Amino acid sequence: MNGEKYWEVTKKDWYRTTRILLVFIPTLGFFSVLMLPDYWYFWLLIVVAGLALLVAWHAENFAYICPKCGEVFEISALKYLLGPNSINKKYLKCPKCKKRAWAEILRIKE
């Protein structure tokens, strides 16, 4: 693991992600009550834009480490969106060893 650019995910990182979700989800609920009956298309636009921002933020701030070879790599927002994941792992193909595995998440230093 490259100690200069990446670190393991800490409780602080989990709290930060939780805070972002705790703002996004109630905001989505608020807009759904106001707009869903009459302006469902605008509400759908807000949902899609919000999810795109969340996925882009996560793809930009987190990387993954291959459990097979130890390679640390970053993925695109599209791969993040389409790939299966658990809470702290994502099923990915390693760019170095070309094997698929549940890669652990790492934080990219700012």
How many structural units, i.e. domains?
A: 1
Share of helix among residues? 40-55%
Mean pLDDT: 86
Number of strands: 5
Low-confidence stretches: none
Q: Compute the number of helices.
A: 3
Structural class: alpha+beta
Share of residues in strands: 15-25%
Q: What's the main sheet like?
A: 5 strands, antiparallel
What order do the helices and strands follow?
A: EHHEEHEE
Global outline: elongated
Q: Round the Cα radius of gyration to an integer and report it.
A: 17 Å
> What's the end-to-end separation, in Å?
17 Å
How do the strands and helices of this protein lay out in sequence?
Layout: E1 6-8, H1 11-35, H2 40-61, E2 62-65, E3 72-73, H3 77-82, E4 89-93, E5 100-108
Antiparallel strand pairs: 1-5, 2-3, 2-5, 4-5
Helix pairs in contact: 1-2
How would you explain this protein's 3D organization?
- With 110 residues, the chain is of the alpha+beta class.
- The protein has one domain (6-108).
- 48% of the residues lie in helices and 21% in strands.
- Strands 1, 2, 3, 4 and 5 form a five-stranded antiparallel β-sheet that branches.
- The longest helix is centred in the N-terminal third of the chain and has 25 residues, at 11-35.
- The model has no long low-confidence stretch (mean pLDDT 86).
